[in-house]
Design a protein that fits this description.
The structure is a homodimer. The first copy, chain A, is mainly alpha-helical. Helices cover 74% and strands 1% of the residues of chain A. In chain A, strands 1-2 form a two-stranded antiparallel ribbon. Chain A is globular, with a radius of gyration of 19 Å. At the A-B interface, helix 3, helix 5, helix 7 and helix 9 of A face helix 3, helix 5, helix 7 and helix 9 of B.
Chain lengths: 336, 336
């Protein structure tokens, strides 16, 4: 149930986009690098690595595309803020999971310890909200809608993320976990921030955040998570950057296991607390053998189709339709 | 270097205040209880205990007083937001320190584990910003200044808090720590949020946040921290709720030790990493024997006097002057 394993559909989107999108994304990267450099020795090289390690930048891309070609600095800062919240949760997740590596680099917790990692996460999180208000200040709050909508949206998404994380801890090791509960957790932990990215993009360019764009964000976010959970079972580790069965080892029950148990009841008796790397891999093989993974992939693809279906509406410009479709396809393609 | 050991000057302030202040503080408590109850099983009883365990409510009081008798719901929510940020940092601090007890109750990390405690801290933190924006929504953002100033102020304070925490980790076990570095850390870790409480109070009632009120907040925040660090050395544990020398055991070098080393050079050679409860108590006795604690107390009292001196200016109403003076005195009295 990590949220990082898959490389981005960035290339395809960039090729399809006019110059404005790559230019705007470069500004986002510049700003992230500036923040990493600007915190002096408190932040240290650990957070700098996190901030500049690249990653998919899927959420900032959604912000930028949903804001459109005429959006300005306020949108760039909103994109930065969304990415900062995402990175803060990654850093804290890694503390919880004791993850040694992310994106091929040592995690903050692995290289600097738990204390530094909690602090770095808190710092990234705080910076996200500071970034949104400096955006408002830059553009002249009074005229342009003042950034308050973005703060409301992002803070609400951050609340959802934390609740999702707590739900995951609460449900750990429970192989009788209901599918609905799993889906609710994905909604909180992953889909909500994708939704917020889309809405914040709209708001930051002075447009209303429509229900359609919110639904689009949620659908691709959920599909993204489903496919990420499939990858945890299939690997290969060289591609995912983590061992197969990492979720199982953490006690995190995901849809592949839930559906596999319906087909192979004995899987419910696997003692997740007693797993080691070898037995976790064997459990992955058993899950795969049930055919449950295809069912999860089908659901994810159906979600992507629903998301693309939402785009055929006049809430979207032709450019948005094209770029958001590519983003949606990219979420699936990277897994096929 | 904990921020919780001292009971509040609430009683004296309440007696001096007209009905509006106790009424407003009761609204803050009600709202905190509402938030604790409203998160369902994700938040769980652990965070509920944290939210409703009482504590000094010193920061919310500052918000309320600086906003004044005519302030409304937006101020109450600002007070709630400041307290939520404070509590989030306490919950995360306890993870770092492995603290078993706070305010006489088991900490979140002790009762629910590290994962839950990181999640609860993140949740409280996110709720703080959500609270500020719902305040703006309630009051009608356009007319009354929209809460964006409060978000800017609180997020900036939260950045400072995280930087202070990281600085403290970075400096751990370094008995050659310079006084300036220690003071800088206190400014980030404690004084900044007191300052923000004062400014946010002003902003939430549509008044500008003056430099004087900011300086007042910083001065009492710093004095508060100095005296808290003295209490860590003196105890008694029945009053502070933690063992003497807890800071030393955590490797946290504070002003009492820095000044004591100037008077007893051999203290610089104490191996903080090798301390246990008994040797930490003995180190506390050695620090006390140098007379350094009186010097720290004197500095704290001087800070309180400077803070009160700032009140003799027409930026403050007579009511504010009276109540803020009592708050300032309360910070010292509780330690004498």
């Amino acid at each position: 149930m990590s949220r990082s394993a898959v490389p981005p559909p960035v290339t395809a989107v960039m090729e399809a986009a006019d110059d404005w999108l790559p230019a705007r994304l470069a500004e986002v990267e510049r700003r992230l690098a500036e923040l990493a450099a600007g915190h002096g020795r408190e932040l240290g090289e650990h957070a700098e690595a996190t901030l500049t390690a690249g990653g998919k930048r899927l959420r900032p891309l959604l912000v930028l595309i949903c804001a459109g070609p005429t959006a300005g600095d306020r949108t760039v800062r909103a994109a930065v803020a969304v990415e900062l919240v995402h990175m803060a949760t990654l850093v804290h997740d890694d503390v919880l999971d004791g993850a040694p590596v992310r994106r091929g680099r040592p995690t903050v917790v692995a290289s600097a310890g738990r204390g530094a990692a909690i602090g770095v996460g808190d710092l990234l999180f705080s910076r996200a909200f500071a970034e949104l208000t400096s955006a408002a200040a830059t553009e002249g709050a009074a005229e342009s809608g003042d950034g308050d909508g973005e703060v409301a949206e992002l803070s609400s998404a951050a609340v959802a993320l934390a609740r999702g994380e707590l739900a995951q801890r609460h449900d750990a090791y429970d192989t009788s976990l209901a599918e609905e509960r799993y889906l609710h957790r994905c909604a909180l932990k992953t889909a909500r921030l994708f939704e917020a990215a889309c809405r914040v993009g709209r708001l930051s360019s002075g447009q209303p955040g429509s229900d359609r764009i919110a639904a689009f964000g949620r659908e691709i976010g959920l599909s993204f998570q489903l496919l990420d959970d499939v990858l945890d079972v299939t690997g290969p580790p060289e591609r995912t950057g983590k061992a197969r069965g990492t979720d199982l080892l953490d006690g995190t029950v995901t849809l592949p296991l839930i559906l596999a148990i319906r087909r192979d009841h004995d899987l419910a008796d696997v003692d997740l607390r007693g797993l080691d790397a070898g037995s976790a891999e064997r459990a992955c093989d058993r899950i795969a053998a049930t055919g449950a993974l295809d069912e999860v992939r089908d659901r994810a693809r159906a979600g992507i189709e629903r998301a693309k279906g939402l785009l055929g509406d006049d809430s979207f410009t032709p450019v948005e339709r094209r770029l958001l479709s590519l983003i949606a396809d990219g979420v699936v393609e990277r897994y096929s």
